[in-house]
Amino acid sequence: MKNFTGFFIQKLIPWGIPAVIIIIWQIFSKEGIVSPKILPAPSDVLIAAVELAKSGELGHHVWISLLRAVTGFLIGGSIGFILGLVNGLFRTSELLLDTSVQMLRTIPHLALIPLVILWFGIGEEAKIFLVALGVLFPVYLNTFHGIKSVDKGLIEMGKIYGLKGWRMFAHIIFPGALSSILVGIRFSLGVMWITLIVAETISSTSGIGYMAMTAREFMQMDVILLSILLYALFGKLSDAIARFFEKRCLKWHTSYQEQS
Fold first, then answer.
1. Which of 20, 22, 52, 200 is deepest in the core (most CB within 10 A)?
2. Among 182, 186, 177, which residue's Cα sits nearest to residue 240?
3. Contacts from 110-113 at CB under 8 Å and sequence distance 24+?
4. pLDDT at residue 260 greater than cutoff 50
5. CA quadruple 93, 96, 102, 104: dihedral positive or negative?
6. 3-state class of 157 per DSSP?
7. Which InterPro entries match (predicted)?
8. pLDDT average, residue stretch 103-122
């Protein structure tokens, strides 16, 4: 019972500050300290969410945004992962491709929005391309770094035990690089949502960002705040999922054993 209580409290502690902020926010709004035209009360935002959910509008926009985010993440993440593996494992590939990738990485991908609109218009392809581009480089950099940072002593030990080729990669190199790869995935998830927010607010006819921009035109502050909170919640959810898989994949690691 004590272990269960401790586990429950441990899970609640990270939500303590957000809960306090929401309570203070509600009190200030209802007491008139903060004008509802500037910052509507959390209860008003909740009412707006219920009304939009009943009409089906909320579900539609959330689904569209999730589809864009996941599609862009899978495309960009896969390309970044493969490039990181190839350049990390093969010196010739590194010499041929790494400099070009690093040069492209220094260009802010959101600065390419005007060019992307000219290429793809304002359809789904433009948004997915921007998300994929934003996700690609963090995954690539951390995968490449993880492969390069594998302990040389472990590689030598693997050779002593007769490991080479695929067996060396599967038993030594990939597990050694996995921690860095997963950090890159967690970082790229944050970039994914940031990119999607910008893409949806600039040119879109659906999605959470479109919902926020439409609400702005009608001065619906509760819907605007709802959109912002949705992005925050989905960002937290995606990070929690990444951390879950991180603990599962690295349960052999001493640091993650201590956490569990």
1. 200
2. 186
3. 110/134, 110/195, 110/198, 113/198, 113/199, 113/202
4. no
5. negative
6. helix
7. MetI-like (IPR000515), MetI-like_sf (IPR035906)
8. 86
